[in-house]
Amino acid sequence: MSRKRVYSSSEKLRAIKDYVSGEKGVTQICTEMTINIATFYEWLRKYNASGESSLIVSKNIKYYPNSVKFNAVYK
């Protein structure tokens, strides 16, 4: 099983702008990017609700040591 591809904010924004401008259709965008149509519509929904900032990819992956997890559950 392959790893899930993470698209950059600029890639998502380019896809949304291509669709909104009428330059490309949903099927064409999804085929070119090899994404599911539902994924594209999720990006579009977020963009319409909150603008470009909603498409920013967070690189801050939180890591918590086991001791912190243990204390959160048992204290």
From TrEMBL:
Which GO molecular function annotations are given, in alphabetical order? sequence-specific DNA binding; transposase activity
The protein's name: Transposase
The family database entries (Pfam families) matched by this protein are listed as:
HTH_Tnp_1
The cross-references to Gene3D superfamilies, in alphabetical order and at most eight, read: Winged helix-like DNA-binding domain superfamily/Winged helix DNA-binding domain
Q: Which GO terms describe its biological process?
A: DNA transposition
